[in-house]
Recover the amino acids of this structure.
């Protein structure tokens, strides 16, 4: 009878030890899963415009700049340069994002 009680107590203690040791691992897995989900959501919300959409928006922005900033040509040219750089980077990022599909051997 005493050995049965000792055996039950030992099994309970072992069960608690296993449960407590796994909780740290469970928290780590949950943290990684939440981080992965966050990254997936960020990618899903990323602005993925085609080059035609970016060119259209670039032309609209340049037209707006031409209409609104006429008195300071230096500033106008700087802002146009920034808009063109932005548009070129957006187009390049769109092409780079899809380049592995078209050219899987290129690195």
């Amino acid at each position: 009878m005493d050995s049965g009680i000792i055996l039950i107590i030992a099994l309970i203690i072992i069960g608690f030890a296993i449960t407590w040791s796994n909780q740290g691992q469970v928290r780590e897995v949950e943290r990684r899963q939440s981080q992965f989900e966050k990254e997936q959501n960020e990618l899903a919300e990323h602005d993925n415009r085609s080059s035609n959409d970016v060119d259209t928006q670039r032309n609209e922005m340049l037209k707006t700049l031409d209409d609104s900033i006429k008195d300071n040509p230096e500033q106008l040219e700087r802002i146009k340069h920034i808009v063109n750089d932005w548009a070129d980077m957006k187009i390049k990022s769109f092409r780079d994002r899809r380049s592995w599909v078209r050219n899987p051997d290129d690195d």
The longest helix spans residues 2-45. DSSP finds three helices and no strands in the chain. Helices lie at 2-45, 51-68, 73-102.
